[in-house]
Amino acid sequence: MADDRPDARPLSPSTVAVTAGRPRHEADQPLNHPITMASTFVGGGEREYGRSGNPTWEAFEDVLGRLEGGRALAFSSGLAAVSTVLDLVGQGALVVAPDAAYQGSLAQIADLELRGRLTSRLVDIADTDAVLAALDEDVALVWVESPTNPNLDVADLERICTRAHEVGAYVVVDNTFATPLLQQPITAGADIVLHSATKYLSGHSDVLLGALVTADEQLYPVLRQRRELQGSTPGTLEAWLATRGLRTLHLRVERAQANAMELARRLDEHPAVARVRYPGFGCIVSIELAAGPLAADLLTRKTRLWVFATSLGGVESTLERRRRWKGESQHVSEALVRLSVGVEDVEDLWADLGAALDGLVEVVTDRG
Ligand SMILES: *Cc1c(COP(=O)(O)O)cnc(C)c1O
């Protein structure tokens, strides 16, 4: 990206998404970094071996780092990034974490606790007073996810970060749901930002990728070394696809968010829906079906445009009942369906979803 502009006004995130992570503007340079397939590089330089770096990963890291306000590292998956962060804490360390959040992150914490590696203190992350009360001098790491998957609870990042730093704890924020366009945790004080780049950053349901971002000059080399030691490196094609995805992140999020807002409003008025969970921003809407878990399962099989599938953040709208997974938190309703709203036409999405829900009203009435 041309950084030598005479006016140093910061670029808007949309412009960063399009212009960062490019080769220099020089004759015969390609506009995009190519896919560099390399296990080894000619010796004597920075990279040497393919596990320590790759120009295709670095293009992705450049864009994401600029969007989040730090330096980014790409990982083989979101969960590889999760284990890298959890690996940082000392033996027996105390970790404060949400009682409901992405099940894979909570499963890793529970697994490490079972094996005596750390202890956890679980809190309702939206209850700021409860979170602050849980932060004492014993805490080494505060695990935050906001909005949470799939309850869409929102944490007060600034107050949590301030208190955590007072007691000497690090804060990691899983920013997968908000994306750097809707929330920048580093600005709020977070030490590390985590992404499942599998979701919005890539955006087309064709990539598994994770990322960590930090503005802490001491933490960055530590995280980088962990990636190299653990070998949790991204695939080159995946990093390239994710960079291509980032180019339209602002367009996709803007459209999907507008769709989600409108759908949340309509869902709120539908008699088959007992509760709509929507934090007022973002592209995920969770609903709790009035007729319970069976109706929720039925809904996910009755839609035509909306695809019954796990995961989220793609251009296509998907839905699933989260408690169909054994590992999902008990704090998530059995009747909750998570809707990942895509970028299709909102009237088409509503026609499909509304019709499927209308069918469920009859199920409720039939039962009296
Ligand atoms: C999907 C997800 C993860 C895990 O990422 P993978 O890329 O699937 O390994 C972590 N956090 C959140 C919030 C997620 O939704």
Through-space gap between termini: 64 Å
**C-alpha geometry:** globular
pLDDT averaged over residues: 96
Counting structural domains, the number is 2
Provide the CATH architecture of the largest domain: 3-Layer(aba) Sandwich
Please work out how many helical segments DSSP would assign: 12
Rg, please?
21 Å
Largest sheet: 7 strands, mixed
Helices and strands in order:
Layout lengths: L12 H7 L35 H14 L2 E5 L2 H9 L6 E6 L4 H12 L3 E6 L4 H7 L4 E7 L11 H10 L3 E5 L4 H4 L9 E5 L13 E5 L4 H12 L5 H11 L2 H20 L4 E5 L6 E6 L3 H10 L4 E2 L9 E4 L14 E5 L5 H21 L2
Parallel strand pairs: 2-3, 2-4, 4-5, 5-6, 10-11
Antiparallel strand pairs: 1-7, 6-7, 8-9, 9-12, 11-12
Describe this entry's structure for a reader.
It is a single chain. Helix content is 37%, strand content 17%. The chain has 368 residues and is an alpha/beta fold. It has 2 domains: 13-246, Aspartate Aminotransferase, domain 2; 250-367, Aspartate Aminotransferase, domain 1. The chain has a 7-stranded mixed β-sheet with strand order 1-7-6-5-4-2-3, with helices on both faces. The chain has a 5-stranded mixed β-sheet with strand order 8-9-12-11-10, with helices on one face. α1 runs antiparallel to α2 (55-68). The chain starts with 12 loop residues before the first helix and ends with a helix. The site of pyridoxal-5'-phosphate has 16 residues, from α3 and α4.
